[in-house]
Batch of 3 targets.
Target 1
Amino acid sequence: ISQTSEKEYVGFATLPNQVHRKSVKKGFDFTLMVAGESGLGKSTLVNSLFLTDLHKDRKLLNAEERIRQTVEITKHTVDIEEKGVKLKLTIVDTPGFGDAVNNTECWRPITQYIDQQFEQYFRDESGLNRKNIQDNRVHCCLYFIPPFGHGLRPVDIEFMKALQDKVNVVPLIAKADCLTPLEIKKLKERLREEIDKYGIKIYQFPDCDSDEDEEFKQQDKDLKESTPFAVIGSNTVVEARGQRVRGRLYPWGIVEVENPSHCDFVKLRTMLIRTHMHDLKDITSDCHYENYRAQCIQNMTRCVEMMSVFHSPLAPLSPPCVYPAPLQLRRMQQMLQKMQQQMHEQEL
Amino acid sequence: MAHWYCVLGGSLKEIEPHFHELARHSSDRKHQSAATSAKNEEKRNLSLGGHVGFDSLPEQLVSKSVTQGFCFNILCVGETGIGKSTLMNTLFNTMFENEEASHYQNGVYLRPRTYDLQESSVRLKLTIVDTVGFGDQINKEDSYKPIVDYIDTQFENYLQEELKIKRSLFNYHDTRIHICLYFIAPTGHSLKSLDLVTMKKLDSKVNIIPIIAKADTISKSELHKFKIKIMSELVSNGVQIYQFPTDDETVSEINASMNAHLPFAVVGSLEEVKVGNKAVRARQYPWGVVQVENESHCDFVKLREMLIRVNMEDLREQTHARHYELYRRCKLEEMGFKDTDPDSEPFSLQETYEAKRKEFLGDLQRKEEEMRQMFVNKVKETEAELKEKERELHEKFEQLKRMHQEEKRKVEEKRRDLEEEMNAFNRKKVAAETLSLSQPVKKDKDKKK
């Protein structure tokens, strides 16, 4: 252990500040997907989270039109700024999910969209000019579970299982103002049980370091134990306890969105924006994207191996979809040559 | 009932048959048509000289039905967990036993439960039918079918009882559904596609009252918009829901105003919370207490008024007079019955029935013949096959026998050849021996010389 305090001051302790400065200059981007049946308050929650009105002129379909509805993917991108930090926020909405009478494989358009974004990034990453890569990969998917039932429904299980390896899935209990505190507790326990039972891999908060202080550790523990979050959203500002807050006005009381004893909205916001936004991005690129990339390349190598037996040894390889990294290419050619040699030896 | 008699006029003898017919809901349609023709003939208003006493007829009817007991059947249609059981418990102020349903049923099935309730000498046989698994499947295209089948089955059972020769309708436990409470999820936007499809299938078979469940999640302004949207969707898709009757003056006003509040936004709860100095049924939230029986909180009181206190009897009547009659007519028409034959002569049920029966028996006989023919043909075919097989086997046997004989002959030949060779060899041997015997004598002779 070097005693830097005794030596002369080198100065790399300023690295964090440099990182901070550069990142502020570069700006951040984040793609959030919201999924769930119509009428669960997804748009309202997004508005409440980012304190903007993203869905000004929405056209909602009638029940009749929804009988045979297919799932669409819509994107809204906004640039928001806070204390000099710029964020390019993209919200991906999935209208029509679970609304039709027959919802078999209604998540397919969603998984296709996510894969498309991965493919796009893969292509960009393997290209020659990588200066301005746009990261459109989905960093987090908020899945809204209706509070009217007794737990997960088959469509919830199927959806989360289809997406668990492609994106960070964060399940939420929507419209939590229809549940009393006891009911919320029961439902959360039930949901946690069922998620375990069906082996659904949802986004796990990283464990905090052991050298953090006790308060932080307690906070972290609280956060983890209150998943899935029970949220309430609101587009309106009401007067409560002498202040103007976002809330819902009822004849029997006022629900405050940002009151921790009313719902977990604050916890969600903290987790999603204030503490774990970057972790979500990291897991997306280190885990889900890498999985996708590895699988993609494996598929290609298999195709190429099968094709190479019939091709002449040094014919230029033309893979069907994306260009592999140069290293892979050389390896493939080496393998080919080895195989050709083996064949020749056998013939002799 | 009282004003009916004055309009009809006539003597008591004429009136009585009509009255009894109404009381027992008899299914003698001809009598009814005769009665209406009598009504149109002549209306004579008689004024009574004194108090006769038939104004006690309603009381007689009432006391008879009280001794008989009443019967009411409710069907609750809604997603799992939407609050059907809780609402039933709250409405009837009783803890009906029920287990929580799971979300993982393969299909929809109906669970009827019958209870005997009593309130101040009035007995009610209440049947609550629950739809288990509704709305849980990923593919919900067939979700409405078990419900429609159940309703039809109850109608069918009643029809069977009506058509019996020895029937006991006064004793019959009527299981026909009198009211369907359709629970709409409080999304705040509009009906779900499944709701629309299901209600369209049910509206001609049962009285539907749509209600918004778990309404404590919708604020007042949202609720107003939501109700308007739902009603407009129902109207634009031609779904006929139950309208509270406005023809009876005593209740027409309240019914008309209630019709404007549809669909009712309800909240159910059996837990009691202290408000002021009373314990009321309510749900306690961190931000307030939702009181079930507070009309500014939800429409529970309105639902209870309409469903139980005012219109229960009308619901039963509508079920019998409208929905059941429609079912019966369709069913009988399907079977080929008509009210009038091609010559516009009124058909009697008996004759049609006999004709149908003969036709059916004839069909049966024909089918039997066909089957017998088929059987005979099959037997012939199999016989022919077997014969063919026998012949083949025989041929094979012959062939094998011939081969065997061929072989035997060849072997015989070879044996003979062999014997000849042996004989020839023996002869040669003998010859050689005799030769050798004579030879040594010659040799000796030569030697001696």
Target 2
Amino acid sequence: MIKDKTFEFKNGGDPDVASAVAAIRSLLEFLRRDQSETILGLRENMTQAIRRLEETDSSVAVSSGGELFLRFISLTSLEHPDLSQCKNVMIERGELFLKKISLSRGKVGKLCHTFIKDGAKILTHSSSRVVLKVLENAAADNKRFTVYVTESQPDSAGKRMAQKLRKLNIPVMVVLDAAVGYIMEKVDLVIVGAEGVVESGGVINKIGTYQMAVCSKAHNKPFYVVAESFKFVRLYPLNQQDVPDRFKYTADILKTVKDLNQEHPMIDYTPPSLITLLFTDLGVLTPSAVSDELIKLYL
Amino acid sequence: NEGKELTKEEKQRLRKEKKQHKKNKKDDKGPPEKEKEKEKASVPAPSKPATQSPAHKAPAPVHASESAAAAEKPAKSKAELRAERRARQDSERTSKQGKKEGGQQSASSKPKATPNELQPVVKRLPEHVQVDDPAALKKLAKKLERQQVPLRSDYGYKVSLFSHLHQYSRKSPPTLQISIPATVIHPSIVRLGLQYSQGIIAGSNARSVALLHTFKQVIQDYSTPPNEELSRDLVNKLSPYISFLSQCRPLSASMGNAIKYIKKEISNIPSQCKEEEAKGKLQACIDSYINEKIILASEAISKYAIEKISDGDVILVYGCSSLVNHILCKAFEKQRKFRVIVVDSRPRLEGREALRRLVKKGIRCTYVLISALSYILPEVSKVFLGAHALLANGYVMSRVGTSQIALVAKAYNVPVLVCCETYKFCERVQTDSFVSNELDDPDDLIVTRNGKSHLENWQTVKSLGLLNLVYDVTPPDFVDLVITDLGMIPCTSVPVVLRVKNVDQ
């Protein structure tokens, strides 16, 4: 039942909605329809639902968004003795949470576009809706800038991004993934999105991001990451190998393929030492401040 | 009179005599001497500890000495003391003004004579050792004399960069100067001090646990004297013990935090609490502290750390950290396949103890000395280090050699993980290993091979100094992850944890 709901929200619904938001919407619907008698049973059902969602879409954001949602709604669950009253409070808080995160992309866009100066050349990686929003805001502010997008194989997501940018009348050029080092001297700054922000302040994003970060560090170009706060996750990878397998590959590959060593991972981890600033709806953060925010969110 | 503990009246009498003696001496000397003494006294005045300077006169901050006086001379009322002090200040001020030449002197006397209450009393940090400053040494000697704790003298030539630190010899522990039976210092404290100074109990956790157990014994044997409150008297009783222990071996950060906790618990005992009940409560507090902050914390840290150990790992450890050994043993019990490389260094050779414990468990180990570090590092997948303390700016203070390992590991891109319980976090800030460290016995560096002892007569060579450092600090850029009982945090988040802890308390 939960799977059908997610598909309904994602495929049928707005493609502009982040997958985590769609997941949380379906979780809220699940909460409304849940029949359990106790709070513990409710929590167990919710955790199972989140796990089922992760099976459909293995991105980090769904996992982190789900966990944050669960924590947010169960903060006050012990105050009311009556179960139905509790559930109403939880549903209310859930809707509040959903509203907050739907607005987060707009907040990030507003914060970041001031960092784009007139005449800037921006490099970005693959297709990110948050980066699109930032560039949209900057263009609306009458700033002139050019964008270079990497092709981002194996799914050529970069080409989709270029199309969306052309619709906004922003001059854009698609470059090969291998041409990042070549193009780095021309650009002024690099902006990428994130699928997950980890405890160390590093980010997990589409494969190729780490490469771009290393190049920009070598050329001393600022490397900015834009992410909403529900993408903060309680992981602490030490290196590329340390990222759990369930995030590296898409859900269907995880289910069908036996030997994962033959498969190519879809994401990589960028350590915090290569990131200049993170733009989130909680504000503009340095990588070391992310841990502080995470402690506040999760404790 | 030596062995007996001076009664309160006798102590007061002694103090008054000394003050009188000093005042007479001062009146004899000319005013320029007075000026110099006043200026010198006013400069260290703001940095004096608030409770321990009744011997100092007028320049001392008024409210600090008031509280000191109130704590130690309950017989004299505060008003009498204040009047006495004011009279002294007035007399000195008038005599000085009679001799003053320019405006500078009056300017210098005014800020001193006017209420020093405006100046905040900066507590001298106990770790702030200044052995090459004769004034600080004199103050320390006076304090120890008052507490009837023997002063330990330094040994041997000290390298100039570290001349501000104490350097003691293991052959002359301060316990030699204590008479038997020891009546001023509790015998179990004497025993503990001997164990510290001889290196029988070493290691941050071991020292703290031994200290707490000894304090339990002391509290057990304590009995409140008449007209005294347990909450105040017991804290005063503990001060000479702590001075004695720091003479045997400088206190570690973990011990400092434990002592702070105990003192807080003692002073929070309500006055109507009966003695037996109070003692029982304190013992329970100490037990729960050990249980929560040390034993359970190491369980929590092991749980987090085991997630970071994967099959096929080659783990490098340095020296002997009880926590890291515990983690590795637990991981081995959970059937993780890994092997360990133990790095060791002279003169302590603590790695041998770690090697013994790990091999006993059945873990595959390799043993190298620290000079072979860059040879062995390409094989290593992770480095696990213990810590003596975590400083407020994210620096890790640990056994000397740790920062070397972190540096070389960073150069080889090997992740460095530091494991540390939160009770070892301290508010101190340090960016180098010089300003605050510990110098061990230099004779430890003497090596005997084939019957010949090189460096045996190092004292005769005037230009030779032996340096036996105990700790060093590692900057946070070399550390990838800190595992604490609160979870896995980056090294830069230590101040956040300290902030959260202070809010809790």
Target 3
Amino acid sequence: MEHIRTTKVEQVKLLDRFSTSNKSLTGTLYLTATHLLFIDSHQKETWILHHHIALVEKLALTTSGCPLVIQCKNFRIVHFIVPRERDCHDIYNSLLQLSKQAKYEDLYAFSYNPKQNDSERLQGWQLIDLAEEYKRMGVPNSNWQLSDANREYKICETYPRELYVPRIASKPIIVGSSKFRSKGRFPVLSYYHQNKEAAICRCSQPLSGFSARCLEDEHLLQAISKANPVNRYMYVMDTRPKLNAMANRAAGKGYENEDNYSNIRFQFVGIENIHVMRSSLQKLLEVNGTKGLSVSDFYSGLESSGWLRHIKAVMDAAIFLAKAIMVENASVLVHCSDGWDRTSQVCSLGSLLLDSYYRTIKGFMVLIEKDWISFGHKFSERCGHLDGDPKEVSPVFTQFLECVWHLTEQFPQDFEFNEAFLLQIHEHIHSCQFGNFLGNCQKEREELKLKEKTYSLWPFLLDDQKKYLNPLYSSKSPKFAVLEPNTVSFNFKFWRNMYHQFDRTLHPRQSVFNIIMNMNEQNKQLEKDIKDLESKIKQRKNRQTDGILTKELLHSVHPESPTLKTSLCFKEQTLLPVNHALRTIEGSNPADNRYSEYAEEFSKSEPGVVSLEYGVARMTC
Amino acid sequence: MEFSELIRTGRAQAKLLRGPEAPPLRGTLCVTGHHLLLSPGPQATSDLWLLLLRRVDSIEKRVSGDSGTITLRCKDLRVLQLDIEGVEATLDIARSIEALSSLESVITSFPFFYRPKGLRLGDAWHFHPPERYYKRVARETNAWRLSEVNEDFSLCPSYPRAVIVPRAVDDDALARCARFRQGGRFPVLSYHHAPSGTVLLRSSQPLTGPQKRRCAEDEELLRAALAGARPGARGFILDTRSAQAAKQARVTGGGTEAKAAYPGWKRLHRPLERGWPLQESFVRLVEACGDLEQSMDRWLSQLEACHWLAHVKEALSTACLAAQGVGREGACVLVHGAEGTDSTLLVTSLAQLILDPSSRTMAGFQELVEREWIQAGHPFQLRCAHSAFSHARPKHEAPTFLLFLDCVWQLGRQFPLSLEFGEGLLLALFEHAYASPFGTFLCSSEKERCLCEVRTRTHSLWSGLNQPKEQRKLRNPLYVPSPLAIWPSVELQTLRLWQGLFLRWIRPPEPSEVAWEKVWQIVTDKKTEGCEPTVSASEPRL
């Protein structure tokens, strides 16, 4: 609280960045310990979590006040005008402090209290159980076993305690291999395909330099290929561009030499590093943040940002992986440099393509827990949770979500969850409201005692799962129904609902999704009603087989059924949430759109001379 | 029949490739006067395959060894490949297709021979006469009348027989107005907005010429339009050319309304692309969509370079501007460009779709297309003679109507509940506008259609589309009537490439179609159960 000087400023204006009429809302700005809150004159509240703030800017003073621009990590951009410069300065300084915390303990998660007792909290944390997940995949089995080598985080600090390795890989081999891998991240199992008996494994780059070898590492790779009874060769996917991998050799790192490893097929897939991705997103946001874009601005901006190219590269890599397993029945080892960014992207997306379980709500949570959280994707650094090195921040996980979104667009019936689910998860990787994404690896999370001091996000999402269900989902697809996305360029689209999620004027005005969801609900309710009625009729019939009575019964039941009533007035109620005074569909207003700049021409009253002329003309005729 | 002279060979053995998903077809290929037939052998189970020759946009032949390959690019953007046995046969078939697909005579075209089962000649041709729309206007206002001054098409060859004009202006004055407007297209009512009482008018450019001629009757007509709306109403003239182009048009006898001559009216210029540049944009977009192997960067730069979405954006925002003038500002709006048969219709028809809920229904939209495009004299015969693949020297081709359909699709995407029809209807209209067994899109004006007796000798597309079996393809299952205007966003972040049309034959039939079927299921489930709950509840009694 010591950072807050001013807690309330009145007469603040909030501008809409895409509205051209320079229309603004006037209201009161409140600064709390966790949020910035704006309440406009219609009592509509805009909450901005301090942790979501990526950038605060104080612009030059104008006649109407001092502009304060806040860019958020969830792509919200708000533009306030504070009447007095002093207030603006206070708020600005407070936000600078509050949005960049130095210690984990100061993050929101440590003070967030959703009114649950300790056992409920613990239950929440136990919702996702990775041991259970490996069991579901079919490990341990005759070829794969649980290794206790990293039980005390002695071999690799950024790996979880529990790791699955080929049964024939002995501890000395594991230890030897880990010494030959960057950050000790030796090859371990990420996903086991029960039908194909093939595995997705992950690791970091080998410390091969120009010529170094490591027999243990070679043995471990051999053990992985031997653990696949069908196919003796395995793929090693280096997800980096070849040039980057070669440059790493000079630093004593690099990639596997095919001559030293028996039965491997080595492949580069060319996903760019975190720095390229960071600046790509930066460019993308710069382009689409401008209002009144021309076609060439938009598409040349989209092109030069390279964002969709990067998304396609990640997707192509995942498809390569899935094909290796499905078509060739080969196991695949994936790595990049440290094996926690691109490797996480490719392994998780690959598994998602292969296994329909990960396309369910619960399964998707498991997938994130496994390939991202437990294997040490550095959420805190990549999301900039603490005031740290800005060069470590990168939208790697956002890209993963975007790839999943593209898949949901291509396969509208194959995912149990909808876009809102992805957006919500994205919201919370930055919110620091829950403990799941805090810290950079499991060891760090244990040290922070997150399970005792914070709450897990997943049970909250699960409680709300109605909001996140895809009404078109057909759950009947078999477990190993593999998705084969088409990655021709025109299948990749700008994800407006992510990057403009708070710019309401850019959205479709009506949501198909809600309507279908409601209809589905009502269909179910109606079916239930029918069953109820039928059983009631049967009951009565048993007592009295009088036709007339049955008719009466129907009459008496009909008006009582509340769902029928709602279904009759359903249309008026849910489909037209409109202000009839305005007579337009909600969110659709000419004043909010680009064409309205010409409206000024309309509203400009005719100059005096013309109206005189007009008067004269009327008189003469 | 003169067709027989153009058919050089009877038949040949061929294999047909229809894109990545459909399996190839083998059989006997046969050219008839209007169709290309492929009949599979007697043992085959699949049906006869049939292609309307008018649908062929360009043809490419290649021979090697003793067989040949013909690539047919169709006006609906489909690409077909025929592998034919025999070099002679290949060349003959190619020549026959070339000759038959480019026949210009209207009365020998297929619609004059098409007699489908279940449809009667003359049906549905009387669905949408101007009189019908006038009846609606007459209920709302008394300021307008139906004039039959153009009964014999002598005033304006591209207008229908009857047009709606201000009651205060008599037929003689109209005749003089017509002489003052290019092609005789004097200002007529396009849409009456009942809530505000104002109107949307359309015309062609005034023939002011270099001497800045004036026409008292024309001025009177526009004055009467304002007076009919309400005393003191203002008007806007929306010129779909740039101010400079409008000025330049004076050299060739055209021009634009002088401010002093039309008190109460204010001129706005919103240039819309037309003619060859629009056609070129279409051609380049289709070219870009055909390249499956291109990198992301190339695709995006091609999408930018073809400028198609810029045209969509411009058309939509101009229509919104017109709609805003009529619906929000309480002003009358007159739209015209040069000839008043292309971008003018684009703007007036889209503006109605935004403002008028009844034009968003299945029947209302068909009426809108009929009234604002077909009867309003959009020269379909010229504009849709060729699509994006033709190598022929372009003359009058321009995808103005396609641009309209694209804009409607964008509206439908932004307001998925507000249009009673779905993408299917738009795709069908695109196909039929370019080549059709029905007569609806034949000719370039009512006058020509009368001369060719289109109404009595061909079937109407509307009767074809309104058959019950077509409905599921054409309707939007989620439609909910709403009395409100729909104001779309025209930001590029919101506009999207119409993949359903431009990539229709390129991408594999997407699972989204399956998903759409599921939406239908959910909706129809609901309707049957929601409406008649008592029926199911009483089942046990039966």
